[in-house]
Amino acid sequence: MAESWMTEVENSFSRQAGVPRRGGNSRNGSSEIDPEEMLLLAPAGKWHAALPSDLRDRFDASLARAIIVSANFELAADRIVELARRHPAAGVALAEDFLLAWGQAHNPQLPQELRTRYGLPEDARIPITPVMMERNIDSLARMMEVFRKAGVAPRDESKVVNAFDLAYSNAEAYRDSHIARVFGPTAKMDEPLFFLLAQKMHSNLGDRWRRTDIQRGALTRRNEAQTYAMAEAGYASLLKMIDEWQAGRPDAYKAILLGAVVLSDWADFESFQDLTPLEPAKRLVASKEKTLQSQDYFQRSAEAYGRQVVRLQANELTIDPYLSWFNSVLGIGSTGQVNLAKPMNRAALGRIRAAILALPGKLAPTHMSQLAKTLNARLNDTNNPMHEDLKYRYLASTLVVTKDDPFSLGLKKRSDYLDELLGEIRVQTRVDGPNTVGVNQEFGIIVSVLHTEAMGRVARFGQYLSNDAIAVAAKTKRRGPQVAKGPDPQGPRDEFEQKLTEGLSPFFDIRSITFAAPDVKPRPTARPGWEETPLAYVLVRAKDASVDKIPPVQMELRFIDLSGPVTIPATSAETLLKVASGKPTPRPADKVEVTQTLDTRQFAINGSLSLEVAASASGLVPELDDLLDLAPLAAFAKVRQVTPIDPLMVRELNTWGEKVAPRTERRWSITLDGDAIRASDKATDVPFPTVKAANTTTVWRTYQDIDPVVLSKASVLLDRVKVAQGAGYVPPAADDYSAYLYGGLAAVVAFVAWLVFRKRDTGPRPPRAREVFKLPATIDGFAIVALLRKLGTSPLVKFNAAQKAELQQDIDRVQTGCFGGTATLSPADLKALAEKWLRQLR
Amino acid sequence: MSNHPNPAAVQAAHQFVADVRTRVGKVVVGQDVVVERVMIALLTGGHLLLQGMPGLAKTLLVNTVAKAIALDFRRIQFTVDMLPSDIVGSEVVDQKTGDFRIHRGPVFTNLLLADEINRAAPKVQGAMLEAMQERKVTLGGQTMRLPTPFLVIATQNPVEQSGTFELPEAQLDRFMLLHRLGYPGRDEEQDILQRQLGMGLRKEEGGAVPKTAFDMIDDSPVGTKGDLVAAMEAVQGVHVSEVFLRHSVELVRRTRESKDLDFGCSPRAGLALVNAARARAVIRSRDYVTPEDLFDLAEDVVLHRVRVSYEAAAAGQTSAKVLESILAGLG
Lengths: 842, 331
Hints:
The structure holds two protein chains of two kinds. By secondary structure, chain A is an alpha+beta fold.
């Protein structure tokens, strides 16, 4: 009976706890007996005492299991401890099973059956409130304390860690106090437990502890800023735990390495997190601080490994300290995210190399070769191809570390090929005009690429001047690891613009960036075989007088090698610049065109005059003071205000002319006071301002009604009553009645005179038909038909119906005779016909 | 110069045109000149622009002509929100196959009535006019020729009305003729009303609507495309004398030299004048052109190709008056 009871318990336990059965027969097709009932039926008292000793032990184990599935954990723990006194190994196994069952019982994730039944998502969970969490932790802590005291702490510590993780809310970072309660002091944790727990925390920090959707699902009401603060606290807590554990173990290179990786990931988190808005400067500082710290940890990890490497067995040798360090320097995170914004850090790479070479004896070349093989394999991995923007940096960095290791020979060839390509290209920035500029003066920086003729055909630099949607889509498709770089640029031109902005904005206020047309043609240079392809014109102003150079600007050039697309960064050299105070020299400008339009339409109403000046030039349009001399105009109409309508604007970059120059425009409106002109007794010839800049074409205009009209001279005649011809009519002032008075008097006098002295005739004689219509100078069919038609339609000619009919007949005859295929009427005939009709005129 | 006049062909063409005019006359009251201009455009392959107020039977007339010659006819009402693809067509995704297929626009027809072309945005006008010029359309990388014959009859309201985009001179030049429609005469207007009174109802589907002139259009053609082609060949054979050519050139040149005009006609005007004169000659059963043809067509050929200068306009001159004075001095 006791055997049957134990078998039933085993069945119930296997089904409920999900543990593979350790023997016994299964009972097919029967449901298990309720655990509570099992307990009631358990052997006890005399029955228990009557059991043989071997059966008693098995009974105890089954009873413990029965208690596990009945969920009376307190009782189960005591039973397990009791059993462990007699069978230590069994006690440990039971403790592990107990933890597993406990974990599943506290798993907040809803069972599959329920999720399916109610159509819930895969990650549907029961929110764990803080009170529940405390209770869970408390319960787990007590159990672990009991187990430790009894010496039955689970050997498979992953079960403890999992149970701890399940007891914790998904949305909460582990607290130090909870860790200490469940696992004991950090410094005393054994190695497997420490790494299990630390890696669990590291994994959670990279995922759920920074996600706001997890917070919402757990109903914590934490906002983004609070989530960020929790993640920060989590990183700090993890790092502290690593430091504490490692403090007593100076050669624990794995722990130091973990700390380095955590710091590196923390640096990336600071750089790219979007939980809370941070000023870019603060973000950069926080990221850089963590990066430097991580580099220090990597160095220490490598040194710690180096100290103990001689004691390690062959299967314990590893390149992890150097590989993780290398990945961190390149911005490859532990979760596979790539920070493409990280520049190449030769110093750090050099330290990695030095650390490997510092290994004793043959261990150095062994490790170096292993690293070279691993890096080479990663570069050549076609199943998980490397991001094209990372390839060149990865390749170059590998060679910095591994240099002439035999396993790097293949990479060396690839690198040489790419370096050769770069050797035929140079990105260049130069100032448009003199290198000395004014403090507040706008000037242009021409960004171009110098290259060999062959490279110009291969590289197709025009591709960087447009956002080709197909290329962007193809590149997006090619991307392997997720890129943590911020918003994706739209295409090659946007990326180029971003690089220009990043490079120049610390020193210059960028007004505009104007790109050359995508079909830009290269221009010859003084160096034989080399050409220049202008790419962009950047209109800038120096931020202050301390700016003394144009910093390097990076451009990412796309090529193809045997592994597929690869992006190679090319950087320009610094260009010297001088920012001087005082009045600056105007920037170079050629073919300046100035259109001056004087608007006099409001002049009669309120005396206001305005002059619009529109200028364009090849080069930068000068300032108004350098363009025009307003004095001639100001002598007649005071200048009230000068208002820039359009600032200096670059319309296009001329890359095909004699020199590379922008086509720029700007406009001003000058408000003038015309009262002095209105007050004058006579008309005033108001001159336009004169041009100062050499090589300038000027057009003068004014308005007639709503249309601007071009003037033939550089002045406009204005008076207070009427504007003279060429400038539009201005009605007389409303209060001037004298003209009407005098005009009326004159009209009366003229009428009276007419009445007195008029002759009795009907006025001038109207013209007569015979005086108007003459024989055409050239006699041909056309001229005669034209004449006859006029005679037929002119009001001066009075023909009767018969004459009109005959006239039409003659017209038809002439048309037939002169315009049909054969000419039947000679000029003499035509002349006679015409004279016939002219004679009939009166 | 000719060309080889063929009196028989001319006579046949004259009869063909007369039949069409008769058929149109049954539906449209008056507008004889407009009908003649439409036929001139058909016979020469030149495009026609009709300018006039709404309600002058432009659509009815063109529809009737198209049906009389069994030509494919489409009408596009231009609006301000149109896109070029509404004219020429576009590529559409076939939902079943996922491939792109070409959807031809209404421009793929023989006779296209572009109603109120000056209501569409310049971009749409440009697409239309480009198709007129090149007689082909590119869609999805494929170049497709437009059908033959292909004739565009565009209409526009007088530009004084708001909400319109005036066709620029360069594009107006593409129209062989611009004819300005006037209102019908008193008798004609009375005739229109009289006809309407006698039309009655059209009963269908249990209801009824009053009949309109469109219901009067006889669907059976009076001629075929072949007749039209033969008429076009007859036009090509019409004799044009040296004198006529000389005076046509003189007319065009004088528009350029006139001080009252900002700019005169391009050589296209001379070509239009000669071709239109040939067609008019055939319509009048002649196998040669006469000055009458030039004088009659001068306005429709020249006026939309010139612009009066500001000074002349201020002095009360109009382009019609300037042309009149040029014609008076011709010969």
